[in-house]
Amino acid sequence: MTPDALRELAAFSAELGRDPEQVQAAGGNTSLKADGLLWVKASGLWLADALQRELFVPVALAPVLDGIAAQAADPVTQAVVAERNPASLRPSIETTLHALLPHRIVVHTHSVRTIALAIRADGKSRIAERLAGLARAWVPYCKPGLPLTAAVAERLAGRRTDILVLGNHGLVVGADTVPAADALLREVERRLDAPVERLMSPSAPAAVPGWRAPVHPMVHTLALDPHRAARACTGSLYPDHVIFLGPAATAAPEPGPSKLLLEAGRGACLADGSGPSADELARCLALVLERVPAEAVLHYLTAAEEAELLNWDAEQYRQALAKR
């Protein structure tokens, strides 16, 4: 592993992490394969910080691949190269997915443009039209981590696949170099782009006891358009929303388990004590829904899928890091 290669990945990762239309809070992950090791982003850390701190965990690649093939319950933990991981960072939840893909560079983002289509009932067909001619695969939603890796393995089946579109989740691209991964990501983003119906953000709504104003004013737009408010309050659309905001947004004046409260026609509030991750995911929801036309039919995570995320040790670890 050369320092230059890791620095190149870190610089690219930091750029992605600073773009809220690609990555939000601790979401998204990148990796590099070299000399039998997989260097993968640590769980719970922000890609935006890739140039300011140690962010990548070295994992022995062969044992992870063997564990995936053997359907091991945890192929990753024992494969971490402890002597090269002095901060005892925990590898990304998606380490097995990064290992499975053959590309030297793998990039997983929660692209707003991708999610805006991947949450739609007709998302698979629409994305197929937009990405025609590219080596791609559609993967219906399943729990991140090993279940997602298994679903991807079924779809690869010996075929070259450089792009994965994950239903109700995000985007994965693979390439042999960082510039090639960047170029492919930009091409996918260009093809999946859609018109944006941007609304003016209002003044902050009246104070609600136990709630605070969001950091990003555009979050208020979720309450200004009836279609967006209804969609936000109907259910959860992708995993990180569940992890960092809780279930569907709640319509005032009846607060629920969500950290996001919408006052129809006025604006939004976040629960007191909710940190930067909640702000970033609330903005993500606003960015996604402003790209979804009113006539679109959406596919939501089920209550069982939400519970699966909230009761998962790996996600509770990320929540604990976010609180710190």
What is the assembly state of the chains in this entry?
single chain
Order of helices and strands: HEEEHHEHHEHEEHEHHHEEEHHH
Question: How many structurally independent domains?
Answer: 2
Total helices: the number is 13
The CATH superfamily of the largest domain bears the name Class II aldolase/adducin N-terminal domain
Tell how many strands the DSSP assignment holds: 11
Structural class: alpha+beta
Largest sheet, order of strands side by side?
3-2-1-4-7-6-5
Mean pLDDT equals 93
Instruction: Provide the CATH topology of the largest domain.
Output: L-fuculose-1-phosphate Aldolase
Characterization of the model:
The protein has 324 residues and is α+β, with helices and mostly antiparallel strands. Helices cover 38% and strands 15% of the residues. It contains 13 helices and eleven strands. The strands form two sheets. Strands 3-2-1-4-7-6-5 form a seven-stranded mixed β-sheet, with helices on both faces. Strands 8-11-10-9 form a four-stranded mixed β-sheet. Strand 5 (136-139), helix 6 (146-156) and strand 6 form a beta-alpha-beta unit. It is globular. The two termini are 31 Å apart.
Write the layout of secondary structure elements.
Layout lengths: L2 H15 L11 E6 L2 E5 L14 E5 H9 L25 H6 L4 E5 L2 H7 L4 H8 L5 E4 L6 H11 L6 E4 L3 E6 L2 H15 L18 E2 L8 H4 L1 H9 L4 H7 L4 E2 L8 E4 L3 E5 L4 H14 L13 H8 L2 H11 L1
Parallel strand pairs: 5-6, 9-10
Antiparallel strand pairs: 1-2, 1-4, 2-3, 4-7, 6-7, 8-11, 10-11
Q: How would you concisely characterize the structure shown here?
A:
With 324 residues, the protein is of the alpha+beta class.
